[in-house]
Amino acid sequence: MAKQKTEFRCSECGWTSVKWAGRCGECQAWGSLEESAGTTKEVKPLRLNESQAARPITEIETQGTRTSPTMVGEFDRVLGGGLVPGAAILISGEPGVGKSTLLLEVASRVAKSGKKVLYVSAEESASQVKLRAERTGAISPNLYLAAETDLATVLGQIEAVNPELFIVDSVQTVASSDIDGVAGMPAQVREVAANLIRTAKQNSIPMLLVGHVTKDGSIAGPRTLEHLVDVVCHFEGDRQTSLRFIRTLKNRFGPTDEVGCFELTGEGILEVSDPSSLFVSGSENPVSGTCITVTVEGRRALIAEVQALVVHSTSPQPRRVTNGVDPSRVAMLLAVLERRAGMSLSDKDVYVSTVGGVKITEPAADLAIAIAIASALKDKPVNFKVAAFGEISLAGEIRGVSNLSQRTQEAIRLGHPEVIGEKGQLISQALRRAIS
Fold first, then answer.
1. Lon-protease-like: where is this region (predicted)?
2. Measured between alpha carbons, how far is 206 from 326 in angstroms, rounded to an integer?
3. Does residue 52 have a pLDDT over 50?
4. Alpha-carbon gap, residue 172 to 401, rounded angstroms
């Protein structure tokens, strides 16, 4: 007989506990555990037929799972080559960043290649989507539009059209009548995503889902949503600029550190295949407080310019303002410069920023940041031919970085043949070499 038991389930992520707690142990949400009655019973093994039996991995066929390009090169780079049949791809981003514009461009290019594409809009009407498609030149007879918010109707549209790619914008606005609650609730999002993913995998159709984000930048809904999908991409960009970046946070079919660059214009979204020139100021006259570095995003080397400004502080606590770089990393570099290079920075306001809105997260940019700060402090410009990359230790030594040859080739290609950052060199020696 089934044994009755009481358990507590999180309404946000589905995590269960045998006793009540004020905070979920999985998603850390407060007050989300609700009492539910569960049953435990013995599950008997099922007799398998020949098609269900496990086979050696060497006998598994993979011909039907090859990637197919979307004709959007930067998007294919992020996905690891293109779309895999049956793959579920979730794209998140802030409102107005350009998610729908990007996916409409992907849909139109795939449709123009001869494949049938279904675009389901749960936020706009079909006429509104067509207006945007006319403005961006995304009209194709193989692109089918549907404005639906009911899950059963969406599944019916997929069955009727039988597309080779379908897009749902967005998963938080689609609801199922079989589940209590309004669209966007954790239970609704979980049910909608599970049914759409099941349909995609059963029919070997790649699927693109749009996901909303909360005010702190995380994907709205239960964390189960990110576990269910195969790829999680985040579309980001500064509202003040037209540059947009798409990064992979999870990818079962490729790398998770690639980045794709786009430019959002009035005519649609354009690929930026060589974005290095966008992240350099291009000033003809040498200015103090600037230094060129090369960062590696996945397999791509990107050149970036770090700028610094050092002024005398009038407050007892000097300001440390950063934009595009890690503030804790900058604080550590200021301590190293003061202790190992003899620079007085404790009574100075220090501002460090990158050009073009690029974000640098890797420690290889330590040397460029240190050189830019030293150049601003001494008011001496760095030679334009210099490019610096290297991690700085607390002992004041420069550590080696990965992809050294790739970084060097990219710096030379863009006119910076003098590279600084030899492994084992002291920070004081590097500063003297850069600022002469």
1. 349-436
2. 37
3. yes
4. 42
Residue with tokens 């009209």: 139
**Alpha carbon separation from 423 to 54, 367, 391, 394 (Å, rounded):** 51, 12, 9, 15
Tokens 């079962």 -> residue? 252
Bridge partners (DSSP) listed for residue 303: 294
Residues 267, 185: Cα–Cα separation, whole Å: 35
CA-CA distance, 171 to 211, in Å (whole number)?
Answer: 6
Global confidence as pTM: 0.73
237 annotated ligand-binding residue: no
Longest CA span, the chain: 84
Burial class (CB in 10 A: 0-12, 13-18, 19+), 273: exposed
Q: Is 137 labelled a binding residue?
A: no
Q: Is 346 annotated as a binding residue?
A: no
Q: Burial, 379: exposed, middle or buried (Cβ in 10 Å; 0-12, 13-18, 19+)?
A: exposed
Instruction: Tell me: is residue 436 an annotated ligand-binding position.
Output: no
94: annotated binding-site residue?
yes
The answer to whether 430 and 396 have CB atoms below 8 angstroms apart is: no
Beta-carbon-side half-sphere exposure of residue 416 (alpha carbons within 13 Å): 27
CA dihedral 123, 129, 135, 139 (to 10 degrees): 150
Do residues 80 and 68 make contact, with C-beta atoms less than 8 angstroms apart? no
- Answer whether 196's CB lies under 8 Å from 88's CB: yes
Alpha carbon distance 282, 294 (integer Å): 16
pLDDT > 70? residue 28: yes
CA distance 284 to 201: 55
**Ligand-binding site membership of 97 (annotated):** yes
Q: Name the band, by pLDDT with cuts 50, 70 and 90, for residue 301.
A: confident
Per the prediction, the chain carries an average pLDDT of 87
